[in-house]
Amino acid sequence: MAPSLVLTGARVVLPGGVVDDGRVSVEGTRITATAAESARTVDLTGHWVLPGFVDIHNHGGGGASFSGTAEDILQAVHTHRTHGTTTLVASTVTDETDLLATQAGLLSELAEQGEIAGIHFEGPFISPCRKGAHSEELLRDPDPAEVRKLIDAARGKAKMVTLATELPGGVDSVRLLAEHGVIAAIGHTDATYEQTVEAIDAGATVATHLFNAMPPVGHRSPGPIAALLEDERVTVELINDGTHLHPAALELAFHHAGASRVAFITDAMDAAGAGDGRYLLGPLEVEVSEGVARLVHGGSIAGSTLTLDRAFRRAVTIDRLSVEDAVTALSVTPARLLGLSDRIGSLEPGKDADLVVFDADFVLKGVMRRGEWVVVPPQLA
Ligand SMILES: [Zn+2]
Q1: Does residue 209 lie in a domain region?
Q2: Which residues participate in the annotated binding site for substrate?
Q3: Cα(50) to centroid of ligand 1, in Å?
Q4: Among residues 267, 319, 325, 354, which one is catalytic?
Q5: Number of independent structural domains in the chain
Q6: What pLDDT, on the 0 to 100 scale, is given for residue 152?
Q7: Are residues 224 and 126 in the same domain?
Q8: Confidence (pTM)
């Protein structure tokens, strides 16, 4: 059992706002209202303490992917944990249904063990016009029976399926997912504004990396982006790495949707936390150069090498978001989407002791997950 701790002196982001010289007490795996008498005090003056980050769209990191072995999966999970992601949904990429079903079985075991929070299937039910880094020959129309097969293979651990809802079977698949409590996410789509509204009305609630892999806004054809931004029922994912989005596009999304409807994601691939070089994204070869991942053939951006600590630093330094809005998009909103707000997403008594410590320059200095330090702050080392 981890010892009791009281973190003092830091600026703490609580549900009601930022508290200067705040206190966070931890007992075992949980945050508590008051500290035990035996608790060790850690002075974090000049630092920030924030709830642990939640990533709902992530393909890998540390040189390993969620399409790999159990060892690979743990490697990727651990890499992202050391960058502040205390809750992570593992994303697959387009492949044969049987292979995806087998991988879902493996991922569901790691979800049972509490290593990941569930599975996100990205593809194969996406548009060939907006395929990004997915194998075109493996793409197919959304067939509710096939969607059902995947969520069954995930044994209750399927959290989200990204699909191009304008394709034949798309809207029926959205209904099926909604009935099963799985998030239907609109993405890699060529839908019109009207088709997008239809999918939202059928139960789709997430925009997969808004702006990327979908038609841009036109004044006579506003397309999916306008429909996804204007509807209160939709949460939009954003990849805040400086490559996928112009800062003004990010600002537009925050202006229209507000932080409570934005989830920052990494969409990371193997190279996140690992460095430049050649990698595989599913069956496709990717070259990572200066942190930007592109397909060897065609040059499409192929996921990111982002980690959420960098997304946070960028949000508050370059994008000029408030720390509170950044935390909402990194922790609060994705925790709510996953239906885990009773356990994670904010620093409140009774919740899991998942938290991150940043210094005044927004450099990550500590990560605690369920009461255990993953990254030990220098004050404790
Ligand atoms: Zn992705």
Answers
A1: yes
A2: 133, 212-213, 220, 244, 301-303
A3: 26
A4: 267
A5: 2
A6: 98
A7: yes
A8: 0.97
